[in-house]
Amino acid sequence: MATVGGIAGHILGSFIERIERLEEEKKALQEDISDVFKEAKMSGFDPKIMRQIIRLRKLDRNDREEQEYLLDLYARAIEGEVSASEEEAA
After folding, report:
1. Whether pLDDT at 4 is above 70
2. b vs e for 73-84, b when ≥16 Cβ sit within 10 Å of the residue's Cβ?
């Protein structure tokens, strides 16, 4: 076992090679996912909305409901602020 500065070179090299191989697999999977989004877009679906749905489906029900509630609350607050500004301008 060759060691340099207390580091076993073959063990470190093995880890690096595994990570590089996984990075290559990850890149291939990302390309496959991109192809599916392109196919969905050609079928008339909006990939941005699909990504949001995927992100939401990863959340548990309580977290998803909380985000939906806050999104609605913030949107209504902004709309109220815009309406108030329009009334002041008139």
Report:
1. no
2. eeeeeeeeeeee
